[in-house]
Amino acid sequence: MSLNQFTGDALSEWMKGDGPESDIVISSRIRIARNLKDYPYPMLATNQQSQEVLDQLSAVLENEELETISNFSLVPLSRLNELERMVLVEKHLISPNLVNESRNGAVILSENESISIMINEEDHLRIQCLCPGFQIKEAWDLANQIDDIFESQLDYGYDEKRGYLTSCPTNVGTGIRASVMMHLPALVLTQQINRILSAVTQVGLTVRGLYGEGSEALGNLFQISNQITLGQSEEEIIDNLFSVARQIIEHERAARHKLMQESKMRITDRVNRSLGILSHAAIMDSKEAAQRLSDVRLGIDLEIIKDLSSNILNELLVMTQPGFLQMNAGEKLSAEERDVRRAELIRQRFGRF
Amino acid sequence: MICQECGKRPATLHFTKIINGEKTEFHICEACAREKGEMIPGTSNGFSIHNLLSGLLDFDPSSMASAKPQTIRCEHCGLTYSQFSKLGRFGCDSCYKSFSDKLDPLFKRVHGNTVHVGKVPKRSGGLIQYKREIETLKKEMMTRIELEEFEQAAKIRDQIRDLEKKIAGA
Ligand SMILES: [Zn+2]
Ligand SMILES: [Zn+2]
């Protein structure tokens, strides 16, 4: 299996199908952090120790039960060039942290890219499962199953009182981070977002923007995740996130409805202006692209725009990131060159003008 | 992750500020944090974990004076407590034991809890699983006794005894 498979397409196979509530919830993700007993965490491990960890964890790939879940490929980070690494980050298959800090870092990817297992990131093992739409419980079931398979062959660092031991004190206990990525343009437009997000943070959840840095919510995309990992069971954590996300979905729906009732013309104008700009602009920075794509996506969901699929926007959000643009161009690009390429690519993709 | 101020050194401080409900994250190195005095953890109004961590450990004069935390060292990996508080990361499993006395207040602030109640690994955690079950059963037994459902309570008592035998035999 070639690496090209994972860096060629912007959309992972799993993203091409629609999940439940996919007009608002883009994806649901579970990440489980685990460490092997008796080995120092990657931050302090010697080259030999991290190699041993890599060997032990990749040996689990031979496990028959794991084979029934999917075909997996092991990709050592050392085999990737800078751009390929960037692309995997932009697809959320690996973390920026794995790129920057790890020694003997590697990732195990399932065929459809819904499962990515990072080795020697901040912890020895990070199992990540992604599902399209609002399927946080399904993602947990899958991740839990994979965790059981690893655990059946390896001894994890575990303490009766503290639970699963992790490098960062924020992950200790269950080691799980459950998150849903939501597109909330109507809550932003109607200026309810801050009130809702601050309510969310008061029930032990956190919110961040899509592409982490600076935490600005590019394209009205928000990732909501659990903050607490100690003293709550996995099921409580998932249920809490599930019910809060469900309420936010309802609020976003109500806000969209209200917008269409009270300011249909203004929304229609905004959506179509963004569509026009995306279809014709010659220079497009990433911030504007994200905002305009969000408008168009809202227009599709509200059926103001009828002849575009919402998938094209998920795809463009990834494809217009720096790594993808440069991969696509086959060379390194300056920020200005990227803005031109980005505009060109979006125009092509809409393909009607 | 590289420091967002100087773009050179690795970022070791990560924290969040909330201004008018908007969260902003900072990833900076120690040198830059010192320069930008206002960003030093403990003074921000955010509730980032590393902020709390350093706020709790490095910048709390009472804990500095009483326990000299910088001299505590994990025997297994060599990480000192003051390194831990700066990095916000443990070095190995043993750090949890080495810094044990200091961790309850930290976890209390980060998670609101200090004790794990979730999943138990099947292979190494068999005994823990039994102990958990016994605790749950004991509570249930007390409830039954209070409700004067003695027959039920007796059944539960037998279940507890079975589990205790399993633990003794293991
Ligand atoms: Zn710096
Ligand atoms: Zn240690």
UniProtKB/TrEMBL annotation, chain A:
Domain of life: Bacteria
InterPro entries, sorted: Arg_Kinase, ATP-guanido_PTrfase, ATP-guanido_PTrfase_AS, ATP-guanido_PTrfase_cat, Gln_synth/guanido_kin_cat_dom
Gene3D superfamilies reported in the protein's UniProt record: Glutamine synthetase/guanido kinase, catalytic domain
Keyword Membrane assigned: no
Motif (RDXXRA motif of the pArg binding pocket involved in allosteric regulation): 338-343
Regulation: Appears to be allosterically activated by the binding of pArg-containing polypeptides to the pArg-binding pocket localized in the C-terminal domain of McsB.
E.C. numbers: 2.7.14.1
Reactions listed under catalytic activity: L-arginyl-[protein] + ATP = N(omega)-phospho-L-arginyl-[protein] + ADP + H(+)
Keywords associated with the record: Allosteric enzyme, ATP-binding, Kinase, Nucleotide-binding, Transferase
UniProt xrefs under Pfam families: ATP-gua_Ptrans (PF00217)
Domain Phosphagen kinase C-terminal, first and last residues per copy: 24-255
Annotated positions binding ATP: 27-31, 92, 126, 177-181, 208-213
GO molecular function (one): protein arginine kinase activity
Name of the top EC class for this enzyme: transferase
Family indicated by similarity: Belongs to the ATP:guanido phosphotransferase family.
Function: Catalyzes the specific phosphorylation of arginine residues in proteins.
Protein known as: Protein-arginine kinase
Annotated gene: mcsB
TrEMBL record, chain B:
InterPro entries: UVR_dom (IPR001943), UVR_dom_sf (IPR036876), YacH (IPR025542)
One Pfam family per UniProt: UVR
Domain (UVR) ranges: 131-166
TM stretches of this protein: none
Protein's name according to its UniProt entry: UvrB/UvrC motif-containing protein
